[in-house]
User: Which sequence fits this backbone?
């Protein structure tokens, strides 16, 4: 019983600590992308063409923990050193 009470009290602290050091899109203004890829995407149903720009900030192959969409840009978060950092972002420009 004490373990359940302890875990129920301790779990929110863990999630709060992880969110405290979460990287934001404004943090990327001071960073340079390691790699930038441009891809043409064609929808097979409608043949509409769009252009996707991917900016990679961390090269490690870590599992994506969270996705956040802001307008046409999607931010992909990974866990690194007990913090959530933006591994890469994808933006559709056309």
Assistant:
């Amino acid at each position: 019983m004490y373990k359940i009470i302890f875990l129920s009290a301790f779990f929110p602290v863990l999630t709060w600590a992880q969110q405290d050091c979460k990287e934001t899109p404004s943090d990327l203004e001071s960073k340079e992308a390691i790699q930038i890829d441009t891809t043409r995407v064609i929808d097979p149903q409608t043949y509409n063409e769009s252009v996707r720009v991917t900016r990679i900030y961390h090269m490690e192959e870590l599992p994506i923990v969270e996705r956040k969409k802001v307008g046409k840009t999607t931010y992909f978060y990974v866990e690194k050193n007990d913090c959530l950092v933006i591994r890469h972002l994808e933006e559709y420009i056309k």
